[in-house]
Amino acid sequence: METVQLKVHHRPFCFSVKGHVKLLRLAFGLITAVCCLADGVLIYRKLLFNPSGPYQKKPVHEKKEVL
Question: Which regions span the lipid bilayer (predicted)?
Fold first, then answer.
């Protein structure tokens, strides 16, 4: 009696569906990380060089005196 052996067709990982999904997830993760870092740097520069709003420090001599 002969046994039938099926050949296992092996695809490289990068050509499989799981490979594409993992590569896309990695790409979007890297893009998200870069955008978050750029956003943080831009906010830091804006607050450092152009402070505004209620947290802006004023010199003591500019404060109004109440009589």
Answer: 23-44
